[in-house]
């Protein structure tokens, strides 16, 4: 197989997990099954956080590009939010990995408050 993968997540999967685990195994020839599992989990969670971030940002970009009627709305009054730039938002994934998403921040002119659109 000699095809370039256009998917960075697929590259990360192969680099972080497959190659990474192979190298780890060579460096830890006496590792127990539990230790191997922990090392694998560690890589898997890291990749998972990265995928989650990519997918969330993809969806978010699609939301804001949509027609006005489909744009994020205020959960309280339903008015279309005004986009107010981007701000980092700290999240935690399962497995306890910190995830920072730079999300578009919306402002509701009716409620006079800013919020991150849900999702
Ligand atoms: Zn509102």
Work out the helicity level.
40-55%
**Element-by-element helix/strand order:** HHEEE
> If you compute it from the alpha carbons, what radius of gyration comes out, rounded to the nearest whole angstrom?
20 Å
Biggest β-sheet description? 3 strands, antiparallel
Strand content: 15-25%
Task: Describe it.
The chain has 119 residues and is an alpha+beta fold. It is built from two helices and three strands, in the order ααβββ. It has a three-stranded antiparallel β-sheet with strand order 1-2-3, covered by helices on one side. A hairpin with a 5-residue loop joins β1 (82-92) and β2 (98-108). α1 (8-27) runs antiparallel to α2 (33-65). It is elongated and about 65 Å long. The two termini are 37 Å apart. The mean pLDDT is 82. Zinc ion binds at residues 74, 76-77, 79, 108, 110-111. Zinc ion (ZN) binds next to loops.
Write the layout of secondary structure elements.
Layout: H1 8-27, H2 33-65, E1 82-92, E2 98-108, E3 113-115
Antiparallel strand pairs: 1-2, 2-3
Helix pairs in contact: 1-2
The structure holds zinc ion.
């Amino acid at each position: 197989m000699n095809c370039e993968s256009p998917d960075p997540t697929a590259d990360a999967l192969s680099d972080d997990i497959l190659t990474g685990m192979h190298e780890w195994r060579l460096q830890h020839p006496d590792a127990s099954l539990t230790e191997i599992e922990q090392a694998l989990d560690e890589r898997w969670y890291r990749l998972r956080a990265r995928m989650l971030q990519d997918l969330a940002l993809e969806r978010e970009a699609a939301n804001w590009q949509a027609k006005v009627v489909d744009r994020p709305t205020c959960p309280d009054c339903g008015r279309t939010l005004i986009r107010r730039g981007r701000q980092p938002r700290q999240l935690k994934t399962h497995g306890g990995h910190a995830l920072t998403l730079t999300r578009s921040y919306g402002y509701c002119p009716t409620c006079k408050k800013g919020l991150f659109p849900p999702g």
